[in-house]
Structures are given as C-alpha cells and as structure tokens.
Amino acid sequence: MKTLYTAEALATGAGRNGHARSSDGRVDFDLAAPKEMGGSGEGTNPEQLFAAGYAACFHSALQMVAREAKVDIGDSSVGAQVSIGPREEGGFGLAVTLEVTLPNTEHAQATELAEKAHQVCPYSNATRGNIEVTLVVSDD
C-alpha cells in the first residue's frame, strides 16, 4: 500500500478512563468507560470514536461510488452503531451496523450503491472477516 496519510494519537492514563490526544492537537479529550461497562460515562469512549470514524469514512466512499454512477445523493447520511461485548472464545469483540439513508433514490439502487461503498471503504476493508458489519439501507 502506498501511504497517503498517517494519523497519530497517544492514549495516556488508565486506558478507557484516561486521555487521548492527536499529534496535531486537533483531537484532545478525556476518555471514560460507558456506564454500561461500569464507568462514569463522563467522557467519550473508543466505540464512539470508531462509530464516528466509520460513519464518515463510509459516507465518503458512498459519495465516491455515487459520483462514478452519476447518481445525486446530496441528502444522504450514514450512521454507525458500534457494539462491544464478550466473545465466546474469550476477550471482547465488536459488531457494527451501518445505517445508510439515501432519500430520493430507489431502494434497489440505494442498496447497490451501499454495497459498492462497502467494497471500497477503508474501514470496511479493515474489518471484513474480523467483525460482523450489517448494512441497513433506507431510501426515505
């Protein structure tokens, strides 16, 4: 792979209850485990960050494949739900649901665009075969 960009961040403190900062300082915040996992919930957590990153990245991939197909998806959106839980074989795992909304696009075409985006999105390529990713496509 030819590297186009490398992001850098450092986590300090107590992991999920610590602090994270990017090398350029644009990301700089306290972390806190969610209440559901025994934390205070008073800061952001890795799953929220992953959800935001995946949603944004997938939306860019969706816009790219729509441009190539000459389809206007101007009012589109992508939401991501990232779930965490124990795995049967030990440790913890993640699952993702991507909610793709393409108003004014026929459902079959919206589904086709979402599936094509899933093939080119770097987050999708990184997670494929490692975690369950579910696409939910809506045309309203």
Which secondary structure elements does this structure contain, and how are they paired or packed?
Layout: E1 9-14, E2 17-22, E3 28-30, H1 46-68, E4 77-86, E5 92-101, H2 107-120, H3 122-127, E6 132-138
Question: What can you tell me about this protein's structure?
Answer:
- The chain has helices at residues 46-68, 107-120, 122-127, and strands at residues 9-14, 17-22, 28-30, 77-86, 92-101, 132-138.
- The chain is of the alpha+beta class and 140 residues long.
- Strand 2 (17-22) and strand 3 (28-30) form a beta hairpin.
- Helix 1 (46-68) crosses helix 2.
- The longest helix has 23 residues, at 46-68.
- The model has no long low-confidence stretch (mean pLDDT 96).
Which architecture name of the largest domain does CATH use? Answer: 2-Layer Sandwich
Number of domains: 2
Q: What is the H/E string?
A: EEEHEEHHE
CATH top level assignment of the largest domain: Alpha Beta
Number of strands: 6
User: What is the CA-atom radius of gyration, in angstroms?
Assistant: 17 Å
- Provide the β-strand percentage band: 25-35%
Shape: globular
Largest sheet: 3 strands, antiparallel
Query: Do you know the CATH topology of the largest domain?
Result: GMP Synthetase, Chain A, domain 3
Derived structural class? alpha+beta
